Amino acid sequence: MSNQEIDKGSINTAPSSTDEFIKGLWKENPVFVQVLGMCPVLAVSNTAVNALAMGMATAFVLLMSNILVSLLRNFIPKEVRIASYILIIATFVTITDYAIQAISIDLHKSLGAFISLIVVNCLILSRAEAFASKNTVGKSVMDALGMGLGFILALFSLGAVREILGNGAFFGIALFPDGFQEWVIMILPAGGFFTLAAWLLFFNLIKQRKALS
């Protein structure tokens, strides 16, 4: 095989921007496959609103960090790259913190310290180090959008189940008639583990069936 044919083959097998986006939704979902960012996933997914807000805040920081890291990847010395990534992430976390505070004080209080803890979310740092620092801005944007949307969907899946079973409501709207016995444990930390385990089991069953078919 000639060098030209080898080059063509490598180009054809390179993931497209669409592949970079889709992988975060299913194949490499940050929660259901990579099991990353478990602290906010378990702590603030007690209601659908909290889960959605935390997911969107994390996705915003991930997107902006990926863009900036990709833009600066050729200028950041390797010796200080992790410190530089953390500084970039912390900047966007601060912006997000103030934005949520301006939009809703109640939501800001509900999410509490977990907004600031986005700085140490291993999902964001791992995408900066493993992907954005090695790829173009376009691919880094698609990677961040896919991973961010996958993270939002996962958090929302947990939050919806926990709120419905734990409060008998969805986005604060009551779903069941009087007399419904609420499963209080579902909005407690233990309920987060139970719900996550159920979703992981469901996700793996689907993957196994697809692999066998």
From TrEMBL:
<comment type="similarity">
    <text>Belongs to the NqrDE/RnfAE family.</text>
</comment>
<keyword id="KW-1278">Translocase</keyword>
<keyword id="KW-1003">Cell membrane</keyword>
<dbReference type="GO" id="GO:0022900">
    <property type="term" value="P:electron transport chain"/>
</dbReference>
<dbReference type="GO" id="GO:0012505">
    <property type="term" value="C:endomembrane system"/>
</dbReference>
<feature type="transmembrane region" description="Helical">
    <location>
        <begin position="144"/>
        <end position="165"/>
    </location>
</feature>
<dbReference type="InterPro" id="IPR003667">
    <property type="entry name" value="NqrDE/RnfAE"/>
</dbReference>
<feature type="transmembrane region" description="Helical">
    <location>
        <begin position="51"/>
        <end position="72"/>
    </location>
</feature>
<dbReference type="InterPro" id="IPR010968">
    <property type="entry name" value="RnfE"/>
</dbReference>
<protein>
    <recommendedName>
        <fullName>Ion-translocating oxidoreductase complex subunit E</fullName>
        <ecNumber>7.-.-.-</ecNumber>
    </recommendedName>
</protein>
<feature type="transmembrane region" description="Helical">
    <location>
        <begin position="111"/>
        <end position="132"/>
    </location>
</feature>
<dbReference type="Pfam" id="PF02508">
    <property type="entry name" value="Rnf-Nqr"/>
</dbReference>
<keyword id="KW-0249">Electron transport</keyword>
<keyword id="KW-1133">Transmembrane helix</keyword>
<keyword id="KW-0812">Transmembrane</keyword>
<keyword id="KW-0472">Membrane</keyword>
<keyword id="KW-0813">Transport</keyword>
<feature type="transmembrane region" description="Helical">
    <location>
        <begin position="84"/>
        <end position="105"/>
    </location>
</feature>
<feature type="transmembrane region" description="Helical">
    <location>
        <begin position="185"/>
        <end position="206"/>
    </location>
</feature>
<comment type="subunit">
    <text>The complex is composed of six subunits: RnfA, RnfB, RnfC, RnfD, RnfE and RnfG.</text>
</comment>
<comment type="function">
    <text>Part of a membrane-bound complex that couples electron transfer with translocation of ions across the membrane.</text>
</comment>
<dbReference type="GO" id="GO:0005886">
    <property type="term" value="C:plasma membrane"/>
</dbReference>
